[in-house]
Amino acid sequence: MGVRDWIIMIRVHRRGQRAGAMFHRGDLTAAAATLTDALSLAGRQWGDANPQSIALMSNLVDVRRALGDLAGARELGERVVELSGQVLGDDHPVTWHAVNNLALALQEGGEPGRARELHERELAASRRLRGTAHPETITSMNNLAQCLFRLGEIDAAYDLAAESVRLSREVRGAGDPDTLIAIDNLGVVAGARGDLDLAQELHEEAAEGLRHALGDAHPRTAEALANLAESRGKRPGPTLS
């Protein structure tokens, strides 16, 4: 690899990091623009069939999903999964990350059955490659629990969501945003089971924690506050984070 390649790689990596920070702040439009810029730079230097471009495209799938562009997320997600399998192999972490992002786009886009199959495959791979207590495995558990909820398998969703919350508290800590999002999701499932007291308790914990961790203006905080309001009987329609 020449000097120019190293320079481009550093620039691409830094833009990818900035996009990730924007995404976690809830600045989705800026994250999408920064990822697109990084992809353009990487593509001009190496083409699409390289690990840097594949990882960036996979992250862009998740950003498009969060922006509500489910058709665009699915189209890009299908391409990334195929490309990553060809270039990096089926057991590469980037490939399974791409599978997970595609599955999320599918379940939110009205294809929970196909999404479930992908989530189950990705969770099994994560357990095998990383272990049950790894943060990425815990996230995979929560994603599958959301999918089961959408499929109407409420008890199975509750059991898996509760396990993911337990592990996330232990591994990440109770105040971590990912833990709090998992707690909020568990509250949605608890409410669907009819355990309204538990649902309100979980939504209160999630909303208070996310306000502290992310601020009142963050989309995740807004979702948690909406779910808390619903659990108190003020508005309909709780949503999974």
From TrEMBL:
Descriptive protein name: Tetratricopeptide repeat protein
Family annotation (Gene3D superfamilies): Tetratricopeptide repeat domain
Q: What InterPro entries is this protein classified in? A: NLR-like, TPR-like_helical_dom_sf
Q: What Pfam family is a match for this entry? A: TPR_12
